[in-house]
Write a structure and sequence with these properties.
By secondary structure, this protein is an alpha+beta fold. The protein has 5 helices and 4 strands, in the order ββαββαααα.
Length: 203
């Protein structure tokens, strides 16, 4: 799999090059502008903190994939951050359904851990309703990051190949159908989801 074009190198961490896709910058700019229009400079400053939190959550998600792959002797040359979550470019596919399942689930599991930590902190220090102040504009930063990580888990686990959920589906199916047939089925499910999202966006 070749490196994704239109990406900016941010440096190397743990032997992995981290890149930021230009569309991610556009997404972050939209968040900053929305907050500035809603609440001025103070809201924009809060948006900057949110942006850094989202950036960190997505990056840790991808490092989850990369570290799980390393356990099976698979290198990750680079990680590219995109608005939908990012891509850890593995040098080869994991061998066997069990290995692919572990690598696919490692990223969302990182977000589950982040969300759980934020939930506990909000319950201890912020009251009994951690998600009550999770508005994208002008909300509590910790609650915003909690909601972001929950969204990342749910979105990435949709069974739409080649997303994490699609790879989980392929790994499960491969145990009975073989990788080739499992890939065909997972790809068909992914196409169905794409068609559904197209219709939803149209209407």
């Amino acid at each position: 799999m070749p490196a994704i074009r239109w990406s900016i190198d941010l440096g190397r961490f743990g032997g992995i090059t981290v890149r930021l896709h230009v569309t991610f910058l556009l997404f972050l700019a939209w968040i900053a502008i929305a907050n500035y229009m809603a609440g001025g400079v103070r809201a924009a400053a809060g948006a900057l903190a949110l942006i850094l939190g989202i950036f960190g959550s997505v990056l840790l998600h991808e490092f989850g994939h990369a570290l799980a792959a390393r356990r099976y002797g698979i290198r990750t040359p680079d990680i590219t951050l995109l608005p939908i979550g990012g891509v850890a470019r593995l040098e080869r596919l994991p061998e066997g359904p069990a290995a692919e399942l572990v690598v696919a689930l490692a990223g969302p599991l990182v977000n589950v851990v982040i969300a759980a930590i934020l939930y506990v902190l909000l319950r201890v220090f912020g009251g009994s309703a951690p998600m009550s102040d999770a508005s994208l504009v002008g909300g509590n930063l910790a609650a915003q990051l909690l909601a972001t990580n929950v969204w990342l888990v749910l979105f990435n686990l949709l069974p739409a190949f080649p997303m994490d959920g699609g790879r989980v589906l392929r790994a499960v199916l491969a145990a009975w159908l073989g990788r080739s047939r499992a890939t065909q089925v997972a790809a068909a499910v992914g196409q169905a989801f794409a068609f559904f999202f197209f219709l939803a966006g149209f209407f």
